[in-house]
Design brief:
Length: 66
């Protein structure tokens, strides 16, 4: 298990949040609740094994109409 801390920004409120990513599990797709606004943040992780880098794509999934 190789944990890495990744800093992301909540797409709903812009609050910075830290998530722990487990490298050894490969690509992942999960939700983390923002501690500030409690909205779910969709994290899409792509692990690059060769360079030990992780690419994190975030999005807020709820479709809000403004
Ligand atoms: Zn938030």
């Amino acid at each position: 298990m190789e944990l890495k801390r990744v800093k992301i920004t909540c797409p709903h409120c812009g609050h910075p949040m830290r998530v722990e990513v487990d490298y050894s599990n490969g690509d992942q797709d999960y939700y983390e609740d923002c501690a500030n606004c409690c909205n779910p943040v969709h994290l899409n992780l792509h692990i690059d094994d060769l360079r030990h880098k992780v690419a994190v794509a975030i999005s807020g999934d709820d479709e809000q109409l403004y």
